[in-house]
Amino acid sequence: MKDQGEQYSDALLAALPKTDLHCHLDGSLRIPTLIELAKERQVSLPSHTEEGLRELVFKDQYRDLPDYLHGFAYTCGVLTDEEALERVAYELGQDCLAEGVRYLEVRFAPQLHVRDGLDVAQVLSAVDRGLDRVRREHEALPGVGEEGEPPFRYGLICCAMRMFTGGFGPYFKDLMGVLAPWPVKEVYGAASLSLARAVVDVRDRLGLPVVGFDLAGAEAGHPAHDHVDAYDYCHRHFLKKTVHAGEAYGPQSIFEAITDLHADRIGHGTHLYSHEQVDVDDPQRYVRRLSEYIADRRILIEVCITSNMQTMPELRRVQDHPLGRMVADRLSVTLCTDNRLVSRTTVTQELRKVVDAFDISPSELRNMILHGFKRSFFQGSYTEKRAYVRRVIDYYDRVAQEHGLPHVARGAV
What we know:
The chain is an alpha/beta fold. It is 48% helix and 12% strand. The chain has 18 helices and eight strands. Strand 4, helix 11 and strand 5 form a beta-alpha-beta unit. Helix 5 packs across helix 9 (169-176) and helix 6 (82-98) runs parallel beside helix 7 (120-139). The relative contact order is 0.14.
């Protein structure tokens, strides 16, 4: 057996069918598109060259999460109309397909794009049009129709914001003059509840593929329980739920997301094992029980390696990331990009980093990738999802065999 990642060629990792369940639309623009849209919409950028923006804004490393979030001021600043939203969604779908992502859940905060003449329904419809065009173009290819390749599928996840200050508020206010900092935390909960009602209405009335609800923004100091009403509303209306938790705060944030917000999945979960951040009598026992609960309930963790390393200085090597322990503990995990532009990555690159850093077996790799399909918020019936996943599994096993990967028995997931 070859050591670690040597048995996984770049060609194999690119060819395998993949998901990206944690991908922010406004963090995944192409830089040339950002520059072009900024010029057309008269948005000031620190630089109007790709090299300049990579040096000043979209960097290899960031000081912390607020520094990482700074670039969203510019990307959201150009996503102010349906044309821009549709174009960026279409290009994102193209970029995903180009690296073998067959199922995408793109998330964004509609409230950051709403303005006079552009409501939540129009924002969601524009993004849907862009991705649907990718779907239709892909389904017309011979390989999809005749050779059993899994078709491109997608869903929309709507993000409520923990707050509109801190990492976001000042930048958006300065750049667009639209969102003022909101001083009272009760307003945050009211805003998220308003969004929950709007997106459920859009899903049911217009039939758009709104598949999930999320809570994003600076985590520390902005607890999830401020948004209980919004998540209760989603829960009562069968809208699936994920929460950014354990990214910039400890295990208790993850616990709160699961218990108070009914989270079906956890975004990041990086501090799951950080017992030193737990304020209880026996923090190690608390963390052990929490991780066992997550494993037993098959609550998927959307892992974003590169993004975490860019915002957490303590992660100096990929090996320092808790993913290795998550896999050893048999948690349900899958790899995601978070932000393809801001983190300068793809799912294939995330896989490359992981198989090179950890002793990932073929069955563990298969599980990690297929967990993304199985735990997705797939639009459609359960039987339709099962049929789609079955097609993906058959294709995965065929690609793996063609690239000489050791056989893994069916049912290993």
